[in-house]
Amino acid sequence: MDTVIKNGTIVTATDTFRGDISIKDGKIQTIAVNIDPGNAKVIDAEGRLVLPGAIDAHTHLAMPFGGTVSSDDYEAGTRAAACGGVTTVFDFALQTKGEGIIETAQRRNKICEPQACVDYAFHVAITDLTPKVLEEFQTAVDYGIPSFKVFMVYKKEGLMVDDGVLCKILKKSKETGALISVHAENPDLIDLRTEQFLKEGKTSAWYHYLSRPEFVEAEADKRAIHWAKSLNAPLYIVHLANKEGMEEVKKARDEGYEIYAETCPQYLHFTSDVYKREDGRNFVCSPPMKGQESQDALWEGIKTGDIATIATDHCPFQSYEKDWGKDDFTKIPNGCMGIENMYPYMLSEANKGKISFNKVVELCSSNPAKIFGCAPAKGTIVPGSDADIVIYDPNKDFVVSKDNMHSDVDHTIWEGTELKGYPVMTLSRGRVVFKDGEFLGEPGWGKMLKRRRK
Ligand code: URP
Ligand code: ZN
Ligand code: ZN
Q1: Which pLDDT does position 454 carry in this prediction?
Q2: Domains of the chain from N-terminus onward
Q3: Which protein residues are within 6 Å of ligand 1, measured from CB?
Q4: Residue nearest to ligand 1 atom 4, measured at CA
Q5: Whose alpha carbon is nearest atom 6 of ligand 1?
Q6: Which atom of ligand 1 is nearest to the CA of 58?
Q7: What pTM was estimated for this model as a whole?
Q8: Taking all residues of the chain, what is their mean pLDDT, rounded to a whole number?
Q9: Which residues have CB less than 5 Å away from ligand 2 (the ion)?
């Protein structure tokens, strides 16, 4: 063994117990009541929780979008991840016209590989479904990329697929064992409402929300679920943010369909009221934050198990870029930061008694690992799994500020948020990459995961 974590309280999705963990060559070797460390390095976790590293299954790093590129590249994004207890990052690799699936992932991997500070994987976003791409699904699944994404919006940006394409993709995913994620909002309604607001001179960030309110998202959730049910294909809805959609997910799951819903901390913490703030444009993301009823429904979905995962949709833009939309909400690049805030925020909610710590591990680590095919190496603490571990001090109070974050962005929507408890150490495959507020990792350490869903 090379390292022993002693005296901590180990928390997985299913268990909480006192124990020591020995680590050898980046993997968990033994878990026992009392391990004699011999010459191994000792990490004392007395009074702390020892958790599996989080998996952020939804990020957009260095993504060309909204007339610019999201400000965290692979180095900054995975550095911030490490500092927030995230040890595996999923990025969306956007297919360009005519490009193959593996080709898309490899193109992005050339940029990501030398920069990544923690392990990572790609979901490939299909934007141009050629017969060649459809044929390539099986090869991609066998290669270790068994998850794809489609956008039901972003027509002008060239990312949207129509229902016919979505159905072809769902059918193929069923045949090949892949999982399709959807960004669900109704593009025609968004265009219609946006046009009307602009004509009326209603241009503030509040109208970003009103151009895509609850029912605009709900319609697309229902449509995507309808197609998935009809084709008996599994479906993963990203960044679910509305009550009606939540109800539809619950209904489909109760009927026995393999439907997964992801939500994000921003939808659990903020409501649409943020768009009335002077800095409302900083909160502009799609789908937008919704009303209190939707937020309550999402928390209820967490409690009933109908929310399967929490991820961040991390897609930060600088203030000057957000300012492009000061007088016209359509010019605000859509996206917010969160990769460093997800695990601390959810753990803080657990520490305050809203849900259990086990539930947080399930949502932020073990479920994404299982759903996206990287369990049991990731997402739990068992002998043989990767030593991706977070040590969490439940007594450390923390106030989020841009000055104590590790992204390459000049503000945070989480500014001033008070957290009860905070991660004090992150290990990535046994290596300490974050300790007491300081990043200790290095670019190039992270490895791309080859995944297998079933
Ligand atoms: O506003 C957002 N969410 N930006 C990133 C792209 C997406 O839709 O996920
Ligand atoms: Zn999206
Ligand atoms: Zn996204």
Answers
A1: 75
A2: 3-51+385-439 (2.30.40.10), 53-371 (3.20.20.140)
A3: 60, 183, 285-286, 313, 315, 334-335
A4: 335
A5: 335
A6: 9
A7: 0.98
A8: 98
A9: 183
